[in-house]
Amino acid sequence: MPRFQDDAIVIRESDWSETSQVVTLLTAAHGKVRGLAKGTKRMTPSSVARFSGGIEPLTRGQIVGTLKPITGLANLTEWDLVEPYFHLRTNLVAMHLALYAADVANAMLADHDAHPGTFAAMAELLPALATENERERAMLLFQWRLLTDGGLWPELEKDVHSGAQLPAKGTLVFDPHGGGLTSGILGAGDARGWKVRGETVALLRGLVAGNGAVGAPVEALRRANRLLCSYLRAVLDRELPTMAFILSTGEGRTR
Q1: Is the dihedral of CA 137, 139, 140, 146 positive or negative?
Q2: Element housing 197 (H / E)
Q3: Which residues have CB under 8 Å from 77's CB, separation 6+?
Q4: What is the C-alpha separation between 35 and 13, in angstroms, rounded?
Q5: Which among 107, 113, 190, 203 has most CB atoms closer than 10 A?
């Protein structure tokens, strides 16, 4: 059982016993790691020293442990709290967005499959949520990087049905099962896709170009966030409870 040490963000936590926890960590080099942390709730000097600051959801720290076979829980032996992200505990909107990010990362990633890009995206998102004017942009960048890190970036330039070049402007249709945009027209009651405004398309194409959505209007960012969240829902083939925090910010089928 190899010993490991890594930067980690806690994305899920539950009680194992009165004194121990089962935690799911998003780590920089080892991907998603589920582990058993024995004695984290004891107040003995040795336990306090080994699990400095306590292991809480949506905190960042240094973890030490031993990895077991893929089907087993890692044995987590040390934790050193680095960043508690206090702003998440004082602002409900920021907490909701952080919970969604943790939930979707947990659902999208397999255990022990390293995704350093997703870890970096989460590490950038959580502090950015402290700034109200940056939240929508930070969430869009996180969702985009989660998709691209997993090889699931949507096709935005060519029609996913015909392969033809898409127009630079105008309303298009996003087909989640095709994995991108099409110029096809949805029929009445067609649930396979969503109309997407030209402004939203331009915003997403800008992410491909690396502009970081700087200066984008808040409502455009919200529409783009709803689109990517809907796409992630289709990829997972289920709706996570925390997706309501993104999808409930607007009504209608046009993203």
Answers
A1: positive
A2: none
A3: 50, 64, 65, 66
A4: 10
A5: 203
List the pLDDT tens digit at each of the 255 positions of the chain. 688 999 999 999 998 788 889 999 999 999 999 999 888 777 777 777 787 888 899 999 999 999 876 657 899 999 999 999 999 999 999 999 999 999 999 999 999 899 999 999 999 999 999 999 999 999 999 999 999 999 999 999 999 989 999 999 989 999 998 999 998 765 544 556 889 999 999 999 999 999 999 999 999 999 999 999 999 999 999 999 999 999 986 544 456
82, 54 contact by CB (below 8 A): no
pTM for this entry? 0.91
What is the identity of the amino acid at 4? F
CB 225 within 8 Å of CB 246: yes
Strand bridging mode 74-83 / 31-37:
parallel
